[in-house]
Write a structure and sequence with these properties.
Elements: H1 10-22, H2 25-40, H3 47-59, H4 62-83, H5 86-96, H6 102-115, H7 120-137, H8 142-158, H9 164-175, H10 181-188, H11 193-208, H12 223-230, H13 246-266
Length: about 270
């Protein structure tokens, strides 16, 4: 097939534009792929059929299917913990500790961020839901909290091999015929300078109180607004038991422990 030249840039640009506009990643990718299939097709009348065949082929790949199922199961677990009141219980526990200094809150942000190694979206969700009220209480702008959570979750999860990111790296290498993808990824991780530098920048910002760019311009969200966001009409502590925080702690510990045991037991991740 001949090179499409500049036209080949149209599908990814449309997918990116739709993702930024509608904030819906999967539909944007599907539409971008459909347009790409139209551009690449020799027979324009059957490009949809060819596109669907490619989608089924890619989704049916063992490695890709594992990644899809992993995301679905982890997302379901996070939703279950939220519905059961685990996040609210965690917030209540932290409120009872009566934390009045920034350093313990920053340490807690790091602790939760480093513990949630499975996937960056769940990392942000659990961490943000847990420490958000503490940032509001101490008057720390939400823009700064967003910077901390995003940088810690993305960069920490990206340099951990025992999660979906590590599986994705090794799947790409295996597809290129690399005989020992695990060793290659393990050797390359210390060279991930961007992630390491980003984590270091977060730590320095916390230690020295730097306000870089626009993160100093945000306003701390009022607790009343946060309560409305978490639950439309319910107060945050209504119907919460004293130990409901265990509905977050126990599933996360079990999930991480089970994953690590499975990796070592099977030897093939």
């Amino acid at each position: 097939m001949d090179s499409q030249g500049f036209i080949s840039l149209i599908p990814p640009l449309i997918a990116l534009g739709l993702a930024l506009w509608k904030r819906r990643i999967i539909p944007a990718l599907l539409i971008g792929g459909l347009i790409g299939a139209l551009v690449m097709a020799d027979n324009k009348w059957v490009f949809i059929v060819n596109y669907l065949e490619k989608v089924i082929q890619v989704a049916g790949d063992r490695g890709n299917l594992q990644l899809i199922l992993f995301g679905i199961l982890v997302g379901g677990l996070i939703r279950l913990m939220e519905t059961a009141g685990g996040f609210k219980g965690m917030i209540r526990l932290l409120e009872q500790l009566n934390i009045r200094a920034k350093r313990p809150v920053f340490l807690l942000t790091w602790a939760i961020g480093l513990l949630m190694i499975l996937e960056n979206y769940s990392n942000i969700m659990v961490n943000g839901t847990t420490v958000g009220s503490l940032y509001d209480k101490l008057g720390i702008p939400r823009t700064k909290m967003a910077y901390f959570l995003h940088s810690i979750s993305i960069n920490w999860v990206a340099i951990i091999m025992f999660n979906s990111w590590g599986a994705f790296y090794m799947t790409l290498l295996a597809g290129q015929g690399i005989s020992d993808p695990f060793r290659v990824v393990a050797t390359a991780m210390p060279l991930n300078f961007y992630c390491i530098a980003s984590l270091l920048m977060v730590a320095l910002t916390m230690i020295f109180g730097w306000n870089l760019g626009k993160i100093a311009g945000g306003e701390p969200e009022k607790m009343e607004e946060k309560l409305t966001e978490i639950d439309d009409n319910q107060k945050i502590y209504s119907g919460i038991g004293k130990r409901d925080y265990l509905l977050v702690v126990v599933p996360v510990v079990v999930l991480v422990g089970t994953m690590m045991i499975s990796l070592f037991a099977t030897g093939n991740g």
